[in-house]
Amino acid sequence: MTTIYGLKNCDTCKKATRWLDRFGIAYTFVDYRDNKPAPETLLEWAGKAGGFAALINKSSTTWRQLPDNRKSPESDAEWKLLLREYPQLIKRPLVITGDAVLSQGFSDNGFKARFNIA
């Protein structure tokens, strides 16, 4: 089973779910504003993504509006606190498939490769 984490009003998340619908791929969508990821989940995602900084969409308005001292957390605890407070900072969509592989973002070619669609 595939789980898509994102924001229900995010255009990129909508494109990703429409793509999955078009190719008949079953998924569950989780809006992480409504269902904030647990600290343990954030730690797991960071491990799979290559660190907390790799989870962040640094071109987002939310990131740009953060005070400078919040943009460089010095511990996992500070990162988890930041992402629980501002889940919209996580690059989206965040996709986890049944094999526990994590990927972020959406592109037609990227999803074709990810889901073995020729």
Briefly, what is this?
The protein has 118 residues and is of the alpha+beta class.
Largest sheet: 4 strands, mixed
In CATH terms, what is the architecture? 3-Layer(aba) Sandwich
Task: Count all strands and give the number.
Answer: 4
Lateral arrangement of strands in the main beta sheet = 2-1-3-4
Distance between the termini: 20 Å
CATH class: Alpha Beta
**Shape by Cα distribution:** globular
CATH topology label? Glutaredoxin
Number of helices: 6
Average pLDDT figure: 94
- Number of structural units classed as domains: 1
What radius of gyration results from the CA coordinates? 14 Å
Helical fraction? 40-55%
Structural class: alpha+beta
The succession of helices and strands, N to C, reads EHEHHHHEEH
Unreliable spans are none
